[in-house]
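Our preliminary data section would be incomplete without showing what the modeling component actually yields. Below, a chain of 308 amino acids is followed by its predicted structure, encoded as tokens that our downstream tools consume directly.
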Amino acid sequence: MIAKLKSLRLRPIQIVTLGILSMLAAAYAWVVSMVAPGAETAQQFWPFSLVGIAGALVANSTGVGGGVVFVPVFALMRESGVLDLTPSAAVGVSFAIQCFGMTIGALTWANRFYRRDVTPVEIAHRPIVRELVVRSLLTGLPALLITQYIIRVDGDLAFLLFKLFSITLGILLLVQVFILRQPHSDREMLENFDRRAALAIGIAGGMATALFSVGIGELLALSLFLRRYPVDVSVASAVIVSAITVWLGVVFHLQADHLDWRVLVFAAPAVAIGGFLARRLAHALGAVRLKIMTAIWIIVSSGVLLII
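Predicted structure:
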């Protein structure tokens, strides 16, 4: 009987998860109460549920932020006259949507590393993920805030450079998969080069995320893939970093009144579902197909943004 009661006792990660889920549910209820969506609103905005599921699946299974889906889609909708969102509003809405989707994804990955039947390999990966997350955020969060509140950046030029850089990284990832396919094993220990790289990625990614709602997770995931770290380590680190970053970054857009709450009403539940299912998708795809999927999406989405 005592053993059965012990098995029912909640572990710390489960308590944290329930607390965060409760806060997300309360936040969503508040958004719905503000919008009070009717039939006309539902008819106009329900497609964002599909966009949300797709974005969350891509983001939380590959580690690249959901903005790589949402920003191109919003830009295309704006150009076609379907959705009247300014560039700032598009970025703000992308931040808000990711607060739901990336958080669910981060919780799913974290619970994977702390479940009862966790494997010895996953236990060994815990400190690697922790250090990558801490180092990336140590420079990434200040860079995000400084870019949002202090630095005056030419948004068009910065966006162009970021798209070109993303395409370059995507191509390098494909090269690594298709050309450099000599037998190798995954890195199971964090090397000093990657410790320093995480700090640098935090700076560049934090600035990019401030401008486009995507950057820090994308750069971290791609760099870890290129350095041949395990899929669990690469994706979990990037998803957790992205989740924390977007929560801090969305404050700026709340203050600036950039958010279209109607989009969030229909996208938030969808990204939550996608975030929950994404880890299973990552394991089903496997390392090679996951890298190819990540690279192709980044190249295609950045290429579309270059054209429009």
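The chain has one domain: 11-20+41-307. The CA atoms of residues 106 and 240 lie 5 Å apart. Preliminary results of this kind motivate Aim 1 of the renewal.
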